[in-house]
Amino acid sequence: MIKYLKKIREKKGKRWFALALIFALLPLLHLYYPHISFRLFDDRIDFHLGVYSLALLYVALAMGLNLSIGFIGMLDLGFAAFVGIGAYTLAILTNHSTLPFWIFIPVAALTAGFVRMVLGATCLHLRGDYLAIVTLGFGEIFVTLLKNNPGGLTGGPDGIPLSLLRLSLSDLTRFWLAYFFAMLAVWTVYRIKFSRIGRALESIREDEIAAEAMGIPVYRLKLLAYSLGGVIAGGIGALLAVEVGSAHPSNYDFFESARIVAMVVVGGTGSIFGSALGAIGFVFLLEIFRPLAEYRMLIFGAVMVLLMIYRPKGLLETERKRSKKKLSKLDCQK
Amino acid sequence: MSFFGMKNISSAYGKTDVLHGINIEVGQDEIVTLIGSNGAGKSTTLMTIMGIVAKTCGEIIFDNLNITELEPHEIVKRGIVLVPEGRRIFHRLTVEENLRMGAFLFTRHDKSMFDKAFALFPILAERRRQFGGTLSGGEQQMLAIARALMSSPRLLLLDEPSLGIAPKLIERIFEALHKIHEEGTPILLVEQNAKLALEISDRAYVLENGKILISGTSREIACNEDVIKAYLGI
Asked: In chain A, how many domains are there?
């Protein structure tokens, strides 16, 4: 066992191991100190398990968005819509059936993935700003659609309450669900990044024409990464809706998209660990500055400006795996 | 029918026609060069062959196979690879990763392919773990050529390999091209430096305003008075 742990530590995943361990220990901490709280501006801030679950879920969402922003380098401003598709899929299906809710998590993931694939198939040949505008438009259309309650399915501006489902699960269960799915998302994206496909995606980001000339099927790979981002968004969106206790249109508007983009960009586009830290930091800071209500966005504005000045590439730069394997007898003769 | 031939190819960027009925052939053991002034359509010709720029008419035959309608990655799979203009290496990928991308469609990473690349350009072996963007211009061009060779192409397209590179390194690169050709890979070379291009090549085409103006063996072209006046600057 110890040997195994050592092996993990020796590998690149050292930081990940530490982060995963810290989060795994949080419920224990919670057991002894159920209320980690302090006062800020005469308000009591309470750190409970729900905050940690939220942080984990946003880590997973940052992973999903990193697939498109970080790897292929396309600005995606409608990501929250796919989180919403996952959430509403779960909410509608649980309300209309008696099956246990967890069956619908993969369904939510696949639905969002499918919608994103269809959207991607129509618009991925666009570049830069044009693509950003299409994704932005899609996000807006989605929210408007939800508010108009098509077929009486989405509950209009009130959304669909999931508080009963939320109450049927303990805080701890929800925490471990979030933990498991966040780890799954991180692991998947990590595996992709350091694979042949991942390198190809990054080469598309670096230079699309060169990638094409090298025989990389640019459009197919873009579509693959883009749809996979949708799968992650959908699955995590379903869990997020359970965690929050409702599927509500305002949870999936442009500001939510912008928030997830900010997490990835602040953490370091393309860097997996960076965007995870970005997500955790964002959720925690939002919680700490809750008494400031809407004014906390001012603080984020200031943070973003400082980051742009001092770390324009984000907190952490994208990781590169440097293989130690010898490739050739001529290799590294020095 | 020769090894590679494009017949009556026209292509366009959107509504702007660039090529007007181009005919080019490349034999199995030839270096063919395409010279012409800026904006004549040289790079477009190569991009059209790769399927990156859309063709409006004509057909391209490669090794008795019609590749006119194929996607870029399918064309690479058939054995045509382009070294794009301005190198276009992947800056934030390491030299080794750049090379691996060159062999993207050929999943078995043959050690011998790296051997070949490093034998041709030993400097790349030393720089293997560096980011592509940290190499000098000449080294980047070497990397771009080595990257293209990773898929063992049967026809190599080169777009301006001497662009913005120190004269000494240009010599090294052209030596390498000579070696690649001797090992049996035909080359279609686009070059601004007409003198250099005509020295290394067997045959040449002169392109102007999207049309072939003159074609012939490189020696003939090099002696053609119009060409001398327009491109050799003597």
From this structure: 1
